[in-house]
Every structure is written in C-alpha cells, then in structure tokens.
Amino acid sequence: MDVMNQLIDQSSLRGMPKWFKILAIASLLSILSLILITLVMLLKNGADLTITYGYLYDN
Q1: What CA–CA distance (Å, rounded) separates 59 from 55?
Q2: Could you read off the pLDDT of 1-54 as tens digits, one per residue?
Q3: What is the rounded CA–CA span in Å between residue 54 and residue 22?
Q4: Measuring CA to CA, which residue among 31, 12, 32 is closest to residue 20?
Q5: DSSP label at residue 59
Q6: Can you give the pTM of this predicted structure?
C-alpha cells in the first residue's frame, strides 16, 4: 500500500478527490489485466489464434 501512496504522490493524481483516484487506478488496472489476458492467450495458442467478435461469423 505504501507503493500505491508513493505513486499517487508523484503523479498528477495528487490533490484530486479520492473517488477520482480510485477511478483512475481501477481504469489502469483493468487495462493492464486485459493486456495480460491477451498476452497469455497469445502465448498459449500461438499466432494461429483467431478471435471473432459478434455474431456475423459462424464457426
């Protein structure tokens, strides 16, 4: 927790309301988790992975 407080103190979040700090950190963590999930999927399935979004393409 000390590291998180130090990051907040050294960033532009200093002086912002607490709810805004929580929102910014939650957004950052969600983006990082999506990137890590994508990396794991790529490493697991290789370059042949095809992800289709939506209902336009039937398998």
Answers
A1: 10
A2: 677 778 777 777 778 888 988 898 899 899 999 999 988 888 887 777 676 676
A3: 32
A4: 12
A5: -
A6: 0.61
